[in-house]
Write a structure and sequence with these properties.
heterodimer; A: alpha/beta; ten-stranded mixed sheet; globular; disordered N terminus; B: about 70 residues; mainly alpha; 4 helices; about 0% strand
């Protein structure tokens, strides 16, 4: 049973709760316990500001046309595999089209391997060249390091796999919360749990500009949702001629409706409902006030929903002092990546939006003087198959992702370059995929998250509570090829 | 609902039965009626369809935003 996941190991919170219970029954709390708790919490009592921004690409981004094989032999293999499809080279991008977005890392990859970004991502390529962006190769959900043989083993007790691989809803949840759809806590929220006590207003710790997402829900942290224009008002209570309850005596009507929605109630559940409504109304006023004083001159591209979401995140970060925030976790997203069909037609526009939005957002953090305090990273349901289905690609597993910010050790690749192969032989190159070039991740989401969480300020023992599978990775688990810190953060 | 609403009080009472199985207290009913009469004064059963429909929409929205409606008991 060594790999069964215990979702609630001894967290700092549980630890403090127990220490508190000890004190309550009159026993002296051992000094050692206190010092350990203080040490663990030290990072979060710091006065600096840090934010993590998750950019979720819904649908499963085709990674092989995003971070593209570029050295001549690799590109030829990629082109041979992807030749079926509507483009001049099938699904494959022409090598000449990739020259302008070729990535030239500080540390060249072994074997002369080279990559270029999709031609529609010059902004991201520029961030890479400037040392502000890194690429993490072949990352995806794993319970433990997994080989192809282990993947096909019937012994799931010994070789557990993430639940429901290749299913959209479940893999979105696994990326965000290490469990299938229905999981109720994500690692962004659990990170937020650690920061709640150090933020002036705990509500502004985990913020989604992209609707409800399990990523941002912790044990105690709740996610606060923003619209692209800022805080979401209760329109029935807003000023203006809504007329929902009529057009006469508006201020008296508003006052009475607000009392109805927010008054203290005798019934416990009714009281919880009115308490949350009250919190929401107060938060809206606070956020609106905090954002109204913000000056942000960086232009964001129009007709780009991801850019609009990142813009409100930048404005919220700009208002961090008014919101009393020291540590924040944000979620933004873009949909439409599930390109079984029309990959060649649709993906360029999506990747252009991603590149332009993230480039603008990074520029905004530079303008606000927080470029090294804000780290943006991408995530997606899964990578896709390397093989063409004739018009697009089908669901996969591992994929390539970006980490962007002034604290990122950019202009480098992290993780392991996956072989370009769809063969089903015993050759070494065929051992990294489970058919059609669907990659077995060589880096787990837990390693990815742990590297970000350490920078954010989580202590080693806290990481175990945030990322329960992390114990199966790293040198201490006898898996030095799967380091628990990937090294892409300063 | 528009047709069977001779006044705001009867309308709210009817919606309380249809939507909330009568679980909204008399006190809250009176408050909803007060809001309707403040926001849309002068609407009676003799008013035109549009006015009565707006009153019914407001009444349904109010009932459905009440904590007593939202928490099923």
């Amino acid at each position: 049973m060594m790999h069964v996941v215990d979702p609630v190991p001894l967290s700092r919170r549980a630890f403090l709760r127990r220490a508190g219970q000890l004190a309550a029954v009159g026993a002296a709390t051992p000094l050692g316990l206190n010092l350990a708790a203080i040490g663990e919490a030290a990072a979060f009592t710091a006065t600096d500001y840090k934010a993590l921004v998750c950019v979720f690409l819904f649908g499963g981004n085709d990674h092989a046309n995003t971070v593209v094989a570029y050295d001549a032999p690799s590109w030829q293999r990629y082109r041979n595999i992807r030749q079926a499809g509507p483009g001049p080279a099938g699904l494959a991008l022409e090598r000449s089209a990739l020259a302008a977005t070729r990535l030239q890392p500080g540390t060249p990859l072994a074997g002369g391997l080279e990559y270029a970004l999709h031609p529609s991502m010059p902004g991201m390529a520029g961030l890479f060249g400037a040392g502000r962006a890194a690429v993490l190769l072949n990352v995806g959900p794993l319970i433990r390091p997994t080989t192809k043989l282990e993947y096909y083993s019937p012994d799931r007790e010994r070789y557990p796999l993430p639940p429901q691989l290749m299913s959209h809803n479940d893999q979105q949840s696994v990326w965000q919360a290490q469990g299938a759809e229905g999981s109720d806590q994500g690692w962004g929220g659990r990170l937020g749990d650690l920061a709640l006590g150090n933020n002036g207003d705990a509500l502004f710790t985990c913020i989604s500009a992209s609707g409800n997402a399990v990523f941002l829900t912790g044990q105690n942290a709740v996610q606060y949702q923003l619209s692209r224009s800022g805080a979401v008002p209760i329109s029935a209570l807003a000023n203006g001629p809504h007329g929902m309850y009529g057009t006469s005596n508006q201020s008296a009507v508003r006052q009475r409706v607000q009392a109805l929605l927010t008054e203290t109630r005798g019934h416990v559940l009714e009281n919880e409902y009115t308490r949350i409504t009250r919190r929401s109304i107060d938060a809206q006023a606070t956020v609106t006030a905090a954002l109204s004083g913000v000056t942000l001159n960086t232009p964001f591209p129009a007709d780009n929903p991801l850019a609009a979401e990142l813009r409100v995140v930048a404005r919220t970060i700009a208002g961090r002092q008014a919101l009393g925030s020291k540590r924040q976790v944000f979620l933004v997203s873009l949909g439409g990546f599930d390109l079984h069909d029309r990959l060649v037609e649709e993906q360029p526009g999506l990747l252009r939006k991603v590149s332009e939005a993230i480039t603008a957002f990074h520029a905004a953090t530079v303008e606000l003087g927080v470029a090294d305090r804000v780290t943006t990273f991408t995530a997606s349901d899964f990578g896709r198959a390397l093989a063409s289905n004739g018009n697009g690609t089908d669901h996969g597993w591992g994929g390539h992702h970006f980490i962007v910010g002034g604290a990122v050790r950019g202009r480098d690749f992290y993780g392991v370059p996956p072989p370009l192969s769809i063969g089903e032989t015993g050759a070494p190159d065929d051992q990294w995929h489970i058919g059609q070039g669907r990659l077995i991740p060589s880096t787990s989401v837990d390693q990815y998250a742990a590297t970000l969480a350490r920078w954010f300020g989580a202590g080693e023992s806290e990481l175990a509570g945030i990322l329960p599978n992390l114990r199966n990775f790293g040198a201490q688990a006898g898996q030095p090829a799967y380091p628990s810190d990937l090294g892409f953060m300063r | 609902v528009c047709a069977i609403s001779p006044g705001a009080a009867a309308l709210v009472r009817r919606l309380n039965l249809l939507l909330a199985a009568g679980q909204i207290s008399t006190q809250t009913e009176q408050r909803l009626v007060e809001i309707l009469e403040l926001g849309q004064p002068g609407v009676t059963n003799a008013s035109d369809d549009t006015a009565r429909r707006y009153r019914a929409i407001a009444a349904i929205t109010l009932v459905m935003s009440c904590p007593e409606y939202l928490v099923q008991k």
